[in-house]
């Protein structure tokens, strides 16, 4: 009987692994992703199968259709016409990006850099304190610590003076947020979408699709987005990381409505509620008159918007491509675009942290460095603390800042937002900021073969899994 039972379990295991392998091959968004899952499933099935059941649902029809339905309904409420491929302005520097996200570049904006946590949260808190009608807050991570409670205090104070306050956080990013934190907000008049109960990405089958956006909108006229989350770590209070290098944006003008659109979609998806009628959609133009575009991207898009954003930005470069990201795990298209830019004479620089927070992604990056350095790409490793900013600088007039990392997760699995800015003056500010960061970095000159043993061994293995990291 024991032999029969063992044989039955063995056959069942083979069938389950085979079904997972077939699903990985047939539904992965890229061939590289399919290969990574197949290797993992066959090499370590006892770990690979549970991991695939949780993280490997690349295309969930009901999920993506529901997300798309939210976007359509919100657009209909606003009577918003998307930019079609034929209606975008071909003379615009940002033409290809208009076509990508089907929204127009808007002028009349004021865009200001917020460097590091203290400056960022001072600006956000001041805006919340001055709110007149409503406050919209969304972060991937909200922690119950000093910074998290400082945010809660201000949101509660705003609600007590009659301001409508809404908060969204991600169920995985804010996994450790205690119920008491949420209850304190709700009991004091704040609408808080519980990431453990809403019908959005916190669903178990959707656990691999995270909402990584960081958005604050005040009265429809002031917006903030970038790389910061709400945790003491982001103001440099973590002894392991020390200084936390991050960048946010303060926005005024029509581009805030585009950022707010993403929030309204996320709120509808997570709660089923339409909030568009409660929001203001006509912010006044600012004298600075900067051109900008909000890039909303996520796994429910009909195309891989995140991957195509980076690919298009790199291909648009004529003289310079500087990218700062905490993770460097490119897909084959973005990797080729970087090499092609360097070969046509562009100044291509990649800046990443020297310290690791996620070791697999940190190791995987080393496997790409030799390849890009061979064609002239410069790799800077930031040493002053942990570098978490997501910044792209193209030539002398275009920059993008937001939540999207330079990795496959941001390319295809996370909901992200980036603000694309067309302004020589703003690009100059970004260039100075990145040059300062490079002063706190060292230029990588060692090949992988000269790195420490664990890096030499770990990097190629991590690269095999890079499409699913």
Structure description:
- With 469 residues, the chain is an alpha/beta fold.
- It has 3 domains: 2-59, no CATH class; 64-93 and 106-290, Endonuclease Chain A (Endonuclease, Chain A, 2-Layer Sandwich), CATH 3.30.870; 305-468, 2-Layer Sandwich (Endonuclease, Chain A), CATH 3.30.870.10.
- It is 43% helix and 20% strand.
- The chain has helices at residues 2-27, 31-43, 45-55, 61-78, 95-101, 116-129, 146-160, 179-187, 255-271, 305-316, 332-343, 359-373, 408-413, 424-439, 453-464, and strands at 106-115, 134-139, 164-169, 191-193, 215-218, 222-226, 243-245, 247-252, 290-297, 320-324, 328-329, 347-353, 378-382, 385-387, 391-394, 398-402, 406-407, 416-422, 441-443.
- The protein has a 15-stranded mixed beta sheet with strand order 4-3-2-5-6-8-1-9-18-16-15-10-12-13-19, sandwiched between helices. A two-stranded parallel ribbon has the order 7-14. Strands 11-17 form a two-stranded parallel ribbon.
- Helix 2 crosses helix 3 and helix 10 runs parallel beside helix 11.
- It is globular and about 70 Å long.
- The relative contact order is 0.13.
The number of domains is 3
User: Averaged pLDDT, please?
Assistant: 87
Helix content: 40-55%
User: What is the highest CATH level, the class of the largest domain?
Assistant: Alpha Beta
Taking pLDDT < 50 over at least 5 consecutive residues as the criterion, the unreliable ranges are 81-88
Largest sheet: 15 strands, mixed
